[in-house]
Amino acid sequence: MNKAMKNNLGIILFLTPALVIFFVFFVYPVFFVASTSLVRWDGITDITFVGVNNYISLFKDGTFIKSVTNNLKWSMSGGFIHVPMAMFVALLLSSKPKGWKILRTIYFFPNIISIIALSMMWMAMYNNEYGAVNALLRAVGLEHLQRNWLGDLHTAFPALIAYWIFYIGYFMVIILAEISTIPESYYEAASIDGANRIQQTIYITLPMLKGIMGTCITLSMVSGLKQFEQVFIMTNGGPANRTTLLALYLYKQMINYRYGLANAAGVMLLTFGVIVIFTIKKIFSTNKIEQVG
Amino acid sequence: MNVELKGIGNSSKSAISMRHMTKKRLLGKIAGKTVMWCILLFFLFYTLFPMIWLVISSFKTNVELFDNPFSLPKVWQFQNYKNAFQVSGLAVLFRNSIVISLCATAFNLFVASMAGFVLARQRFKLREAIFVLLISGILIPVNALMVPYYKIITQIKLYDSIFALILTYGAMGLPISVFLVRGFMKTIPWELEESATIDGCNFYQRFFKIILPLSKTGLITAGTFQFLLSWNEFIYAMLLTSSTSSRTIQLGIRYFSNQFTTDYTSMYAAIVISIIPSLTGYVLFQEQIISGLTSGAVKG
Amino acid sequence: MSKKVVLGMFAVVLVLTLLFSLTACGEKKVPAPDEAKQTEPSQKEVVINFPSIWVGKDSKANVFGSFVKEFNEKNAGKIKVVVEEMADYQAYRDKMKTNIAAGTVPDVFSFNNAKDSVLYYKSGNLMDLTPHMNGGWKEDFIADALKEVTYQDKIMAMPYEFAVTPLMYNKRLLDKAGVAEFPKTMDAFIEMAEKLKGQGVMAASQMTGENGWFSMLWYSHLLVAHGGPDVFDRGLDDPAFLEAAKSLKKLFQYTTGDAVGAGAAVAGGHFLSEKTAILVNGPWFIGRIEKEAAEGMYEQVNVAPAPTVAGGKGKQGYYVGFIQSSLAAAKQKDKAKEDAVAAFFKYISTPENVKRLSLDSGSLFVIKFKTDENDKMSHIQKQMIEQSSSAPSITKHFNAAMDTAVVTEFPQALSGMILGEFTPEQFVEQLKQKAAQ
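^ inputs. structure came back:
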């Protein structure tokens, strides 16, 4: 970039709207949340300052600790199973098999259906009495594996993760769009050299996808930290708080008239998020893909 | 580039030796195809199933739904759709949802693309700091912000208007949009902008005439995210409005969920109706717009 | 932009217009709120905003809606009650909490009575109804009801809906299992449950999903059975909490395999499709039995008080009943507005109006009214009223008596106990911890 391209007035003009909105809708609210994390407040009567007491109670609460570890598991599954799977399917579709456009559209459907409907369906799938999962196990002669999937201490959380992890549509569409921007000439050159499709994928496509993969992994991991609605509907954190998550924990504290504790949990959620984002940035920047993310 | 060329060089040697085994290769190819189709069909079934289930369930009675959720209805209950159309002010809620989602998306992309442009393609002090600050907003759990958002909206006198939701949704998605749009803008080759500068394009012309058209993939990605957020959001739609004239279809769906009982099957009918516009829009988007745009994009 | 894109856009618009013409029939039904804004400047009308859950498909929506309409017609030009429709109770509760935390109390709102309701009374944000109540209005209410909403000798809300939650049982399933009479003691109950199990029917619907509602009501009954009607006054240290937990755990042996994690729709559905023989719930469920239950089942559903336990303090026939919801109003500076709100409260609580509401919706209220033989009432509701009026004691349920934090934890602690993660002792301990946090 040369000096002629720089425009200070333009920078200010273009950044101002975003910054104003950001201050009103993010900085002020976060400041509000952070400051009320230091008080005891039921949301109705007077506020008392309690210092870091809320944070101390958080770390003494087994449910909070469980929420943190669950969120980390959710994020990891998102970043390291969900997104790579989306990439894999995107690569398959990029070879443009018959009907690939229809498949691409249908794979995205679950993102359009409301979460209530999707969650209710999976509750029915996992149900012990009439669930389709148990019926499937019976059909293939694995009766002994049948169980009340969402009401079992050991399977409830894995079952929650297992169902959404295959809904790869969103990231697949992003990655597919990125693949389609790779110039055809690269592949032409490679096939003249005698490279087959798998080799082309490994040596041309994959390196070109590093940037978008960093973006997708970040988005997926961050959304893993913020999960709320589907768990709220499907298990409400049960059984025995085995499926609790930070956002759910935070919500329950608000319901319990403990705004201070809820907001302390919010601050912790934010802190974990920052750690995750910076870790991913670090990992991917060593691979020299500073460009994106 | 170096890495790639080396890789291809190595493998071309093995490709030669493979010519002696064409039969094996053919078999391998068939096997590969079969595996690929198994995988693709698995995902097809997995993603299509909820939609089919939802539509079938929306024709059942509630007892049928909970007695045997995977059966066909004994009698197809068109009544559920009749119920759904009786939601008070359904047409208004629909119109609001469309207006709010489109405006919030346009507003969000406008702000995000300007910020993204500067953050991707200008060099100045604090650039990285501002960028990190902005994208840290992605992390904020919005349901923790109910009290402050309610305060802001009532203070700027937007409570119970569609602008409250346009502004809030546009703002909520801003960090993610900046993140996505900037990422795409960064990959546009410098030479393009440089040669435009030489041709006499100023800052604004370069933004509108070169960068914006070339980052359409990014804009559509971010726009899809933003549209879905605005279309499906419920908590703030409830919190920041109080009359039908400014509410969205998501509140219409909740019409069937009461304190003691929820009429799930009528709710499903309402959900089916509510996803038709986004589904239609998406299908058309996919087929026409994305493919048309990406094929023409020049990227490095 | 290519031709194709334009065509695509055009198609979207076309589809949407088509949809609109289809949905336009609903448009005329847009409720009043919008009109309110227009009439404001011309006259000095007092506008009362009322976010309400008694709308849409709620059983009280019809009659309550006509109350508002009638009241507005009667006071045309003077008072206008504007209803903000919010069917979803959870969202309603969250919005009310947020409004109040942000310092804006709605003119009129309803809440489910709970131990933490006292926070609202304490806050100083609510209108004191005492002066209005003193003019004879008080006499319309069941005496104990007003105690529930009184704080420092001031009546801070108007108690409204009342509920009892006895055992509703499916008599034809009992007959099939050879049980002639509904068991009065826990031992007899278990005996019956075994017989039912032999017929492939589970005794009672239980659930630990959502707020664990049906099982929470069972626990409330068992608490009274073990600890007597004043069990909640003595707090979680009372041994009754442990004993009731043990009894509840036993009952889970006689329920469906999906009870842990099941929500109210699933657990209630099992009763309606005759997979379980007993459901503990309030009168609002009667309408669903009538409309949705298996064929011929409605006539066979009867009501009974919960069983007693050997050595327990609960007397035969005890009932669990509670004020389900009350209405509160924001403190007003303007006397005219305060009077308007009081007038509205009075209107919706006259014995005649409450009778209309009760007969139409099947709900019970804390306002006294006379019924006669001609009034149409379901046999289930009749039994509930008869049994509750002759009950030796009526105690509120666990969720209404405990801190909200304990209420939130209950389904978690319960599922833990049922799955063997906690002993009954640890179950009680878990609840105590939440109360202390």
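The longest strand of chain C covers residues 319-329. The CA atoms of residues 120 and 126 of chain C lie 7 Å apart.
thumbs up if we can close this ticket
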